[in-house]
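Please fill in the sequence for the structure shown.

STRUCTURE ENCODING:
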């Protein structure tokens, strides 16, 4: 019909762009991906992948150093545990290279053209590569991802004051580290650092720690992830000024002000400071403003089919322009970006597809893990009141689970929130051993519309951790778990 270079051009080669490209090829569409020299994006290079390597290595150090836990199983480790910081860092780097290579290889094998330049929107069907070069396509998907947010007043030197980008290289293990932000990134780093012998302080601007978690789960997380590790915290304060130091010579100075009154409340001196205050969209170079497309705080506005809107509440800017992943800000998770990429391709193929973001699980890979899908208890109460149904709640305990007890890991709970009238799941929140794997059953059930009653009659393997969830589902309908 049209003389374009490709059916689809994707700007960005993170998990979202990669997922969209694979699905485009599976649907027989010709496809090019503009990587901007960053194959793998944040997740592979500076996020999920290297952080899991650090958590795996440091978690083993923690486990092998926990004498009481080992003694309870009749095990002793003579001479204690030693680790090589450079070796742990190398483990993370090797994993990144392996995963990135696999991702790049899969694109090549499927006939996706990988172009190393950055791409900017050049108007309908056109992506500009700079230097007067451009490529054309029937449809364009923007997947530029995000970058760490550094608040005003914070000076980054990459060594004593740094973001997750630098932290994942593990160039040193600080004696005393302050972490600004108590979200998933901050919690995971506090887990790594304390396992390797650091002291940590969390600084949170909001009144409550771990604002992304259900409140009951956050309380459990404080009991399991902070208190026994000596991690202290400040809430309701901004780190208004952070001045870098010099390793081993001069401390980092953090000035904290009250979030409400803006008065100086404390000055903290630490060896290093990690800034984990969230992420902002990497959309500055896309050139959308030149085409009258508004991006408040950098976020590209999209409709339910991932088509780009001219602005908040505006009309579709271009029927053939889509934006997926962190850049649209709906849910800043790697697997959400991939799901949105597949959805955009479905819509490009003329099969309307809408992602239900409440069915997408999320996880924090601390020891123990925290995972969730759907809405939290506060939101569920609000929804029950607004829609006039009775809210149901049931809790399963790891301490009643044979497999968890065999591992000496009986801490944690799984909480199911559901509509008592329809028996539909509203949310599931888990803290405990392998919570990130356990949540998937709940996410699948929620997405499929499986009721808690149907789940209560589903057989779970014994003895496995999945019986923690089974117990909660049985409690939902007044049955007794075995």
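FILLED IN BY: designer on duty
SEQUENCE:
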């Amino acid at each position: 019909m049209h003389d374009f270079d490709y059916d689809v051009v994707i700007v960005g080669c993170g998990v979202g762009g990669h997922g969209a490209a694979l699905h485009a090829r599976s649907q027989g569409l010709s496809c090019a991906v503009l990587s901007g020299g960053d194959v793998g994006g944040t997740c592979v290079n500076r996020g999920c992948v290297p952080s899991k390597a650090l958590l795996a290595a440091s978690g083993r150090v923690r486990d092998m150093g926990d004498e009481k836990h080992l003694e309870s199983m009749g095990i002793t480790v003579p001479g204690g545990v030693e680790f090589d910081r450079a070796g742990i860092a190398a483990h993370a780097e090797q994993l990144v290279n392996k995963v990135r290579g696999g991702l790049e290889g899969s694109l090549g094998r499927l006939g996706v053209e990988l172009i190393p330049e950055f791409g900017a929107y050049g108007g309908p069907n056109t992506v500009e590569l700079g230097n007067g070069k451009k490529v054309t396509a029937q449809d364009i998907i923007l997947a530029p991802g995000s970058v760490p947010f550094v608040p005003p007043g914070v000076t980054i030197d990459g060594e004593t004051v740094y973001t997750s980008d630098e932290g994942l290289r593990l160039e040193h293990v600080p004696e005393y580290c302050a972490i600004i932000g108590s979200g998933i990134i901050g919690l995971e780093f506090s887990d790594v650092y304390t396992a390797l012998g650091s002291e940590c302080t969390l600084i949170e601007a909001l009144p409550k720690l771990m604002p992304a978690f259900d409140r009951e789960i956050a309380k459990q997380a404080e009991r399991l992830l902070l208190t026994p590790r000596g991690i202290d915290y400040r809430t309701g304060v901004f780190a208004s000024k952070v001045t870098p130091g010099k390793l081993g010579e001069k401390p980092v100075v953090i000035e904290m002000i009250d979030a409400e009154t803006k008065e100086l409340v404390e000055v903290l001196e630490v060896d290093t400071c990690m800034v984990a205050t969230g992420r902002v969209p990497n959309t500055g170079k896309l050139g959308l403003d030149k085409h009258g497309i508004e991006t408040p705080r950098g976020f590209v506005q999209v409709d339910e089919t991932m088509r780009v809107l001219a602005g908040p509440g505006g009309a579709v800017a271009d029927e053939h322009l889509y934006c997926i992943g962190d850049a649209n800000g709906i849910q800043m998770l790697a697997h959400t970006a991939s799901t949105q990429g597949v959805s955009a391709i479905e819509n490009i193929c003329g099969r309307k597809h809408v992602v239900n973001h409440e069915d997408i699980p999320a996880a924090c890979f601390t020891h123990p893990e925290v995972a969730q899908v759907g809405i939290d208890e506060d939101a569920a109460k609000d929804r029950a009141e607004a829609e006039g149904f009775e809210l149901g709640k049931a809790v399963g305990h790891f301490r009643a689970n044979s497999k968890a007890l065999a591992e000496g890991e009986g801490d944690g709970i799984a909480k199911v929130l559901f509509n008592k009238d329809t028996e539909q799941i509203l949310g599931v929140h888990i803290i405990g051993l392998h919570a990130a794997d356990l949540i998937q059953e709940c996410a699948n059930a929620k997405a499929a519309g499986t009721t808690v009653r149907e789940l209560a009659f589903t057989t779970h393997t014994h003895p496995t951790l999945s019986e923690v969830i089974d117990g909660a589902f049985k409690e939902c309908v007044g049955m007794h778990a075995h």
